[in-house]
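Appendix B, record 7
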Amino acid sequence: MNKTKIDWCDCTINPVIGCKNGCPYCYAERLNKRFGFIPNWKEPQFFPERLKQLNSKTPKTIFMDSMSDVGHWNKDWGETIRKAILSNPQHAYIFLTKNLIFGSVIQPIRLEPNIFCGRSVTKQSDLWHMGGEGYEFLSIEPLLEKINLPDFDIRPAMRTLKAIIIGAETGNRKDKIIPKKEWVLSLVKYCNKRHIKVFMKESLRELMGDDFRQDKLPWYEYLESETRGN
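Structure tokens (predicted):
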């Protein structure tokens, strides 16, 4: 497993590399340009040998698609990955997508208590694509504008939210957007009212000052509860 600089998980395993979303701020695509993992970023490739890393006995919180979008995984890849996950229940698995569905790997097993599914949101218009599926968390990174999250009765998919991750755009993109503190505080107010956990990425520490906040995320709580239970 690759220890990661992502501050809301222990490590990453990327059995799939590549993404069709085409986001201009994508750090994963920048990494691919630098290191040449695959020749064409918009044609994802499957690396099944990486799934052997899941055999580690030490429980970890694992982000499974930091270099792809699970919504683009094909059926055969998904079935292989699903079997590997079910064979290694000691970990907590985190998936993130910008798409309406989580793909064939997630749908059959997302009710498992160690699977956490999130939706990536960067601007207000992304919320209109929130489908009827529930999400355990939102990843609002990068925060590109003020976002007003909908009430639960308007978007049923919001009812299952347990956490919101918020981060600023990183890198040196020409049109890079610097978020405003009030944008973040508006999201925090929403979360406080609904008892949703808030996790601000390190990219916001200077901006937020004394209001910087990192609540314990559900996947860490899950592993702690499993450890106590054993």
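Remarks on this record: DSSP finds five helices and ten strands in the chain. Residues 15 and 51 are 7 Å apart (CA to CA).
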